[in-house]
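Weekly structure sync, notes
Attendees: PL (lead), two postdocs, one rotation student
Agenda item 3: pending single-chain targets
PL asked that the sequence for the first pending target be pasted directly into the notes so everyone works from the same version. It is reproduced below exactly as submitted, 276 residues in total.
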Amino acid sequence: MVLGIVIGLAVAYVAVLLLLFSAQRGIVFRPDPTRPALAETEAPAGMHEVSLPSSDGLAITSWYLPPTRADGQVIAYFHGNAGHYAGRVPRILPYAAAGYGALLVGYRGYGGNPGMPSEAGLYDDARAALDFLQGQGVKPDQLILFGESLGAAVATQMALERPARALVLEAPFASILYSARQRYKFFIFDWLVRDKFDNLGKIARVGKPLLVIHGDLDRTTPAQFGRRLFAAAREPKQGFFPKEAGHNDLMQYGMPERVLAFLAGLDGTQTSMAPR
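Predicted structure, written out during the meeting:
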């Protein structure tokens, strides 16, 4: 009797793990596959659609705004796991108003783009985006990598691969494995994770000025993950952890102002600022 119960529980446990294994990309990636219309957004004047060729032959649509600043700085913006690049137009408006260029990077499977999202695929799309900016004459000291939530993992990987002026991480997680363990307390097998996005394992190797922004009330990606990344990162670094903010409302709690101040500080002496 007892043995039968134990066997039954074990079978059920394995079945649930296999279900999570098969469904995990549907959990990690939540794309809106519809193709957005630029004219139906608040996109600033000068923003236009570009097509970026990935290394595996896909044409990845993204939206690009050339800089108007004399120093030619551009933000490569890597968005989170849901929606698509068009929904991030409001997020770049404060930086566009300050003259920064912006590339809203599209991903495969998102916003009418072909293909299916995966960790390797998003990295490939990001490389195509940075190759495009290089072709536009954007130099490493003019490039700012900005990652939002899942996009923080893409930006971190690009910071390891490419020279850039700075790295900004908004509501980052430590890794998919840590997030899975946070949500599914019984999720204990590393080998079940197909797309690892291991930010914590990479951040100490990023040798660029870093700004980590994370709301203390974030229930999607708990702020403990952002704090762990900040603690593991090399100097120079700054952390901003507004106590009233959650996952999607950082714009309302001083994020644009903090980002602009951080970027302005790169022109002078960069000093470390502990999180608050």
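Discussion points:
- The first helix runs from residue 2 to 28.
- The mean pLDDT is 88.
Action: rotation student to compare against the earlier draft before next sync.
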